[in-house]
Specification:
The chain is of the alpha/beta class. The chain has one domain: P-loop containing nucleotide triphosphate hydrolases (Rossmann fold). The protein contains six helices and five strands. It has a five-stranded parallel sheet with strand order 2-3-1-4-5. The radius of gyration is 15 Å and the shape is globular.
Length: 153
């Protein structure tokens, strides 16, 4: 049976690169948001991101029911967010896996600098505000929450 995979990890940890390795439909919140709001969603970003994720969950369930594996390329920052996704699929009888990409602090900051140096229309620039917001909200998963744990990809 087909399944849904959610990839979790810090900003710039390699989620999209990892997601591309699967023979699966990849549903990216960032990609859809950049398409719909190329100039940025401003203060409404969090509201639009939540709506986008809700839409992508519905599409993921539809695709899995049609026999297509799906990779959700967005990383819920909180335990509650990850649990919401897990429950969504579990309640629908859809096999689900959480994959977590862990990177240490030094590597993470190196990757942010590399992304920012290459930032353009297809890449979010990680400014100090986004970094502070992320650091205040991100709850790294515990090993027992994760189906596949990857180190520093």
């Amino acid at each position: 049976m087909s399944k849904a995979i959610l990839i979790c990890g810090k900003l710039c940890c390699g989620k999209t690169t990892y997601a591309a390795q699967f023979d699966a439909a990849r549903l990216s919140c960032d990609e859809l948001m950049r398409t719909l709001w190329p100039e940025g969603a401003g203060e409404a970003h969090d509201v639009f991101a939540a709506r986008t994720q809700t839409y992508l969950l519905k599409k993921a369930a539809e695709l899995v029911r049609l026999g297509v594996d799906v990779v959700l390329d967005w990383g819920p920052w909180t335990r509650a967010g990850r649990e919401t996704v897990r429950n969504y699929f579990t309640q629908r009888g859809i096999p689900f896996e959480l994959h977590y990409i862990h990177v240490d602090e030094a590597e993470w900051h190196r990757r942010i600098a590399k992304r920012n140096a290459a930032a353009g229309p297809d890449v979010y620039f990680v400014d100090e505000g986004l970094l502070a917001k992320f650091e205040a909200r991100f709850e790294a998963p515990k090993r027992e929450e994760v189906d596949v744990w990857l180190e520093g990809r």
